[in-house]
């Protein structure tokens, strides 16, 4: 018992009910500054006035089972400085003398300081949500933990698996043990996890902790990131790991908000773009239609009997073409909203693709009769599969009409080839071609490599082609040389669609 009292890290007193000290162990000497000889036989010296009354009242209540056995209390040391303690008391039955209490006093100063720092950190992290710029959020995040919780704080992001990149940092430079021997660390530098560890944390979502010191901890951040805290002075504990996880949870929310805001803005911009293009594209054929109708009516009124069949034919042809153009554009715009809403439903059925290509080619040859473009078809007999016929017709129509439209009147080749598992379609023209810098964007919405003045169009056709082909489990690509011509290639699996 003697030994226990001596080595106990917790301050222990034995007190009479009136607070007279009967036992005062070395930990109590260290905590309060009074030596055992100073206090034995005297009233406990660490409280006066109201605090002393509180203490006595609690002793009495606890002895009668009316109060919990623990109490948090502010006492003072011999030098007058305050000390927060948690006081645990237990009545000690005594057969001889007066009743006594065993009191254990746990120093709460450290814990309080920790809690206050934790709270300060969490309060400050509220500011994470104030920015809708992801970079600003990360900058804020790394600065939060330094210097109170870390000498170095960094955020990594992994766009390529296995290759985390540092995207924000604060505090002193931290070195990975893989790149620098601990002994060779420059003054003030701390260690940190190697790339493989950061990568594993990102991949598994499980945090990692190197106790040290020097010490580091690494916690996942959003879906593809990690936060690393390093310190050379102390060992991180599970409490700090939990704190770091709370921080990254808050940062992830802020990053998510920023992403949603960004997406919403993009959607708005896309809508404005659609409206601008659609109103322009819808308006010009309408103006043409109105003029045409006005001129036909004027001709009729001026000399109905003299109105030549020929004139009427030409007028109606033009009206027909403009109406078709309108309908096509409206279909494309409807497709945009369907695809955007994820409602591009496919209805697969058995399709002979060679027959479908022939059908589309005949239709387009009629439509483009004036351009002089000649279509050459290379069609196998076994290009059968399960696909959505109408959507496939749309893909072929878009690619072949582009080849004619941008083909400068040169011949267009459509070649189909088939294996057991897939079909491949090449639509080749010898037209204006596409500059290499435009190629990667052409399958995006509203992207065009030509000016409105030279060629009408809204830049939706190839986007729709890609969406349809990918929904069918296939792939579309383009290769081109400016001034020489372009080839668009679609590869489709036979079983899906
Ligand atoms: P649109 O033809 O209505 O502009 P598309 O999405 O079909 O829209 O095509 C996007 C752009 O790709 C076109 O504006 C044009 O610049 C380019 N393009 C498409 N097909 C060809 C082709 N066969 N040859 C040259 N450029 C092409």
UniProtKB/TrEMBL annotation:
Gene3D superfamilies: 1.10.287.130, 3.30.450.40, Histidine kinase-like ATPase, C-terminal domain, PAS domain. Residues 277-496 form the Histidine kinase domain. One of its GO terms (molecular function) is histidine phosphotransfer kinase activity. It catalyses: ATP + protein L-histidine = ADP + protein N-phospho-L-histidine. Pfam families: HATPase_c, HisKA, PAS_4. Keywords: Kinase, Phosphoprotein, Transferase. CDD domains: HisKA (cd00082), PAS (cd00130). GO terms for cellular component: plasma membrane. This is histidine kinase. It comes from Corallococcus macrosporus DSM 14697.
